[in-house]
């Protein structure tokens, strides 16, 4: 287990309105907020969709599709971002008059990722579309786009993944990560990109008199923000101001029960109250249930759940997703135990120090869960981790998770440049990526990957630092709700984390090896409750001892009762 180092976040001293709680002023200042208007989450603060490269070409293509009643096929990714992106595209296009819009999502185990020639062939076999719209994929689909164009199918790519050296020959590409794209954020999730495309399309149709000519009311797109919020949080993209606006607006709709039937059903399966839902609930309770379909079976189930307007049908589908998620957790638990055994048994030829990164493989591992496994092991070793699983008799699929300080896609690109025959394909972001290679290339790849880490990874980045917002002196429900309402919190805009010394009043093990804590302040004046997930008591842990904690203060809801609770991120006996 990597040693953790507790450090204080630097704080920018700013003038804040009196209405902002002093603790939140400190928290916001530590997250780089430079002015109070950066906390304005009204829709008016969203930048114009016309700032995106190629947006006019994309909108012209979509208007032609509507006017000529083209068959439109949305090709989605098989994760939560892809599923919500698909639901936004299908719902919005139908609202704006599309009569022949359908979707197709690749099966992870059959087709692989993105718009592949195999997916194009399947689309043609099911009834050739006039237009394919990719959501949350497509920027690396050179062969698939070529196959579609050869079949006389137009292609609009909407994606947010980093482009490679060559772009596919699509009719239009909308991606804020295109080189020199003028849009003020490169952090949109796939669902954010397609939402922006639909905003631009509606504006264009309005200007052209589309709705007035058809004697139809202009459709509202704000009801789709619940899907945008879920996909944005689940894809763990940085919550810059634009994404915070999208998430805050979507969360507000969910809390008011103005969300689609599928999200209502998924939240109910997660046993979370709609009226107090937080980003952490989307990320750790709702998102995983949706993701489970793409990891173990077919994401078509998840998309269907998000598209139905029948709460009864949505609940049935959500129950299926919940069952898949429980199965996923069991598989992941087994794989994690095997991976830990791998780590304990590894012998690095002549190496006296821990390697800079890990490449792990087991013939029994499940391809749909290796990303979660890589993330769990990364938490344990605080090194870049790539977990591999068999795809077929010839090929392995890998999922990489990185640490701050190493752009994992750039690392894979360096490997591909220096050793062009090793990787079959790869793609991703700074913190997560996917790759494929032939079975016989696993060991050469491991060696090459470690060589690249030597050149790209600053050794200081290997320090597992916990950044604290300092001390907290109020631990009641009012403070917990103030902190929760101060968000939305998430990747790049982390939930407030504090540290302090307490005395153990008692403890017990609950659930799956979770440490339930009864705590007292050092002066003995206050009693507090806390919980540390996936944590067993360390050496010397006993009632009466002093411990230093890094923790979040959150609202615990149990049988209708709301209390403040410390969510412990780090614990050490002192």
UniProtKB/TrEMBL annotation:
* Key word Transport present: no
Entry annotated with the keyword Hydrolase: yes
Domain (RecJ OB) spans 471-570
Q: List where this protein forms a coiled coil.
A: 307-341
The record, for Pfam families, names: DHH, DHHA1, RecJ_OB
Q: Which GO terms describe its molecular function?
A: 5'-3' exonuclease activity; nucleic acid binding
Its GO biological process annotations read:
DNA recombination; DNA repair
Q: Which residues form the DHHA1 domain?
A: 362-451
Sorted UniProt keywords: Coiled coil, Exonuclease, Hydrolase, Nuclease
DDH domain location, by residue?
Answer: 71-232
Q: Which NCBIfam families match?
A: recJ
Q: Which family does it belong to?
A: Belongs to the RecJ family.
Record protein name field: Single-stranded-DNA-specific exonuclease RecJ
Source taxonomy lineage?
A: Bacteria, Pseudomonadati, Pseudomonadota, Gammaproteobacteria, Chromatiales
């Amino acid at each position: 287990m990597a040693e953790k180092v507790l450090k204080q976040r630097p704080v920018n001293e700013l003038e804040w309105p009196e209405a902002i709680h002093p603790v939140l002023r400190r928290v916001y200042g530590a997250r780089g907020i430079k002015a109070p208007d950066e906390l304005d989450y009204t829709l008016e603060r969203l930048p114009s969709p016309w700032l995106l490269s190629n947006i006019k070409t994309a909108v012209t293509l979509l208007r032609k599709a509507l006017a000529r009643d083209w068959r439109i096929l949305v090709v989605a990714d098989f994760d939560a971002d892809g599923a919500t992106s698909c639901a936004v595209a299908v719902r919005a296009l139908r609202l704006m008059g599309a009569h022949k819009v359908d979707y197709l999502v690749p099966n992870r185990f059959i087709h692989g990722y993105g718009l592949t020639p195999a997916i194009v062939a399947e689309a043609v076999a099911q009834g050739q579309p006039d237009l394919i719209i990719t959501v949350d994929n497509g920027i690396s689909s050179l062969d698939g786009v070529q196959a579609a164009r050869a079949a006389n199918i137009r292609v609009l790519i909407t994606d947010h993944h980093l482009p490679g050296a060559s772009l596919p020959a699509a009719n239009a590409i909308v991606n804020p990560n295109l080189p020199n794209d003028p849009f003020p954020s490169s952090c949109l999730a796939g669902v954010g990109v397609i939402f922006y495309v639909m905003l631009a399309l509606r504006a264009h149709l309005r200007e052209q008199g589309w709705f007035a000519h058809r004697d139809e009311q202009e459709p509202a797109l704000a009801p789709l923000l619940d899907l945008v919020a879920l996909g944005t949080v689940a894809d763990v993209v940085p919550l810059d101001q634009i994404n915070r606006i999208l998430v805050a607006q979507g969360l507000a709709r969910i809390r008011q029960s103005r969300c689609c039937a599928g999200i209502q059903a998924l939240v109910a399966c997660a046993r979370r109250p709609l009226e107090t839902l937080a980003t952490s609930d989307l990320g750790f309770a709702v998102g995983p249930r949706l993701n489970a379909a793409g990891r173990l079976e077919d994401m078509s189930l998840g998309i269907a759940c998000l598209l139905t307007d029948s709460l009864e049908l949505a609940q049935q589908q959500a129950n299926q997703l919940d069952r898949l998620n429980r199965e996923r957790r069991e598989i992941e638990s087994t794989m994690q135990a095997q991976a830990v055994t791998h780590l304990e048994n590894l012998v690095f030829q002549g190496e006296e120090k821990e390697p800079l990164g890990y490449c792990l493989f087991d013939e029994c591992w499940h391809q749909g869960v290796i990303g979660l496994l890589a993330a769990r092991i990364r938490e344990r070793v605080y090194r870049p981790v790539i977990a591999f699983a068999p795809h077929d008799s010839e090929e392995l699929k890998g999922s990489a998770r990185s640490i701050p300080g190493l752009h994992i896609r750039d690392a894979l690109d360096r490997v591909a440049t220096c050793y062009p025959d090793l990787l079959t394909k790869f793609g991703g972001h700074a913190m997560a990526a996917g790759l494929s290679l032939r079975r016989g290339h696993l060991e050469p790849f491991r060696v090459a990957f470690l060589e690249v880490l030597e050149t790209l990874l600053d050794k200081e980045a290997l320090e597992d630092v916990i950044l604290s917002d300092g001390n907290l002196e109020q631990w009641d429900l009012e403070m917990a709700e103030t902190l929760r309402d101060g968000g939305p919190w998430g990747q790049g805009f982390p939930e407030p984390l504090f540290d302090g010394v307490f005395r153990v009043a008692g403890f017990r093990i609950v659930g799956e090896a979770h440490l339930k804590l009864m705590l007292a302040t050092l002066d003995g004046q206050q009693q507090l409750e806390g919980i540390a997930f996936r944590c067993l008591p360390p050496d010397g842990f006993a009632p009466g001892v002093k411990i230093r904690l890094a923790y979040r203060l959150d609202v615990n809801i149990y049988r209708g009762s709301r209390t403040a609770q410390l969510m412990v991120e780090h614990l050490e006996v002192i």
